[in-house]
Amino acid sequence: MDLKQLEYFLAVAEEKQVTAAAKRLFVAQPPLSYQLKQLEKELDTKLFIRGSHGVELTDAGKELQGYAEEIVSLAQKAKNQVSKTEKGELGSIRIGSASSSVGELPSARFQELKQFYPDIAFDIFEDNTYGIIDGIRSGKIDLGIVRTPFDHTGLDYKELTTEQMVAVTSDQSILKKERLTLNDLTNEPLIIYRRFESIFNASFAHMGSRPFYAVKCDDSRTAILWAKQGMGLALVPEAIASLYANEEYLPITHSSWQTHLQLIWRKEKLSPLIARVIDLF
User: Fold this and answer.
1) DSSP letter string over 50-106?
2) pTM: predicted TM-score of the whole model, two decimal places
3) CATH superfamily of domain region 91-160+261-280
């Protein structure tokens, strides 16, 4: 018993005529009749009562009809779902989102994707950049939105944004200035996101000075919180400051203090769905 036989059986059951069913299926009548006989032979039962005005289902035929409808419907659904998956129109996207990836998730890009492909699901993992990278490398996560700097070994990426570092402070005398230089920061207590420490150290060393880090932490939002309590100047990406610092921040005049948001994925053959999402960016 194969799918074609069940499709032929259903056509005859619905048309109640072999000739009409053959026309509907675009096949000749002899092959259709042969397939029906093979089906009856395999099931060892008669499925149709043949009369002068057409055919009627036997009790066994009526029993088979329900199962055949389910099987054919399920087969068609499987075919459609497999086709959608192959075209990148179906599946689950596992995305890692660093806390500093504000504005990128969710975005209009994903709304558009969901509008055209409603069967796509999103599985979001929130962690710091290093946690997201570990998830990418282990295969737990498909795509990640993370912030530089980090080791790109084994990863492909697309750059999403470029931002300057800014200084967040609650000190109103400092906020009266238009911008700050590295010289302005030399004698100030600084609050830093630990991952940027090597960049800051190199810049200050080039000037021949040594900064005082009053607080080191692992999240820019934490750095801003301490700055609001008067513990020092928090050096954070501008996008984070604009979201959490209530405009109490100043740009820093130092071109090398830049950070980037990047979309990353493991260097390997991509599924059509993941490739489609990458193309959105």
Assistant:
1) EETTEEEE-HHHHHHHHHHHHHHHHHHHHHHHHHHHHTT-SEEEEEEEETT-TTTSS
2) 0.60
3) Periplasmic binding protein-like II (3.40.190.10)
